[in-house]
Write a structure and sequence with these properties.
62 residues; mainly alpha; 1 helix; 94% helix
């Protein structure tokens, strides 16, 4: 009976460990995707600002 309990506890421990590892992997994946989306949005804003600056320079040459 004691052997069976030990085996069950080890199986539960392995399941918890697997769940923790999978959770961290998913967290890393979501973080990477979120970082990529933010990076692309910043690039779009930066590009738009460059276009706006070029337009201002065309209208008011020095």
């Amino acid at each position: 009976m004691s052997f069976l309990r030990t085996k069950i506890l080890k199986m539960k421990s392995n399941k918890v460990t697997l769940k923790v590892i999978v959770s961290y992997v998913l967290l890393i994946c979501v973080s990477i995707v979120a970082g990529y989306v933010v990076y692309k949005e910043i690039q779009k804003l930066s590009h738009q600002e460059e276009i706006n600056q070029q337009d201002r320079n065309k209208n008011y040459p020095n």
